[in-house]
Amino acid sequence: MTDPVVLRRDRDVLAVRGPDAEAYLQGQLSQDVAALAEGDSAWTFVLQPAGKVDAWLRITCRSAGHFLLDVDGGYGGALLDRLRRFLLRTDCTVEPLDWQAATLWGTTEGEAPAGGVAIPLDWEGVEALDLLGPEVAREAATDDWEPLRLAVGIPAMGSEIDGDTIPGATGLVGRSASFTKGCYTGQELVARVDSRAAGTPTHLVRVRGEGARPAAGDAISAGGDEIGHLTSVATLGDGFVALGWRRRAAADVDVAEVEGPAGPVAVHLTPV
Predict the structure, then answer these.
(1) Among 99, 154, 209, 255, which has the minimal tally of Cβ within 10 Å of its Cβ?
(2) What is d(CA 150, CA 194) in angstroms, rounded to the nearest whole number?
(3) Where do you find CATH 2.40.30.110 in the chain?
(4) What predicted TM-score, i.e. pTM, was given to this entire model?
């Protein structure tokens, strides 16, 4: 059996605690917080009132009235400000934690770091365990997370998701939003897009190609027409993997090209 690879990660972690923590988060997050049992984790959006994305993150229930929120590194401060802004007459606190993060790639088993949590990374085709805690052993860790996340289609804040992103365009609504819970901030846009067959103007796709890698921002083309662009790119093996946006009009296009360093490169597109 091959030992799992230890990947250094950058995650910001917040703790939400208090008698009203569950009710507060239920009204702010797209996920059904009340359905989480102790130890459960789930992906979720925090949305603007108009429905676009403030953050995409993961929530973990540690116990009744105690939740952890972990988000891509560098976005914890904005998430903290966003949640505190709506914290009116509510008996709970939202505080940042000085925690570290790592991922064990190749296993879903392992011990949680002292005082922290171990969360299986529930993604199709992935066996991995995320470790979050005050101190996470990362001495043998590598920085190879980027090509792995792109290969399996895990978006990142800043690269794929920002304040202009419509949740329905990301391919993440099925795992990150509940359609059976009560109201939450930004719910209307999620429901409206879900009810329309046409969907959003663009959709996030995985991109694979051979040869020298192109750059983030490069156009994706088919039949001489630009149909989208790359958002993140990384070398993997003899080729490259990437994420990018594909226009709705080209939703059926699964073979396209991007302009690599040595000229046009054929790529394959698959939805996230």
Answers:
(1) 255
(2) 25
(3) 201-272
(4) 0.95
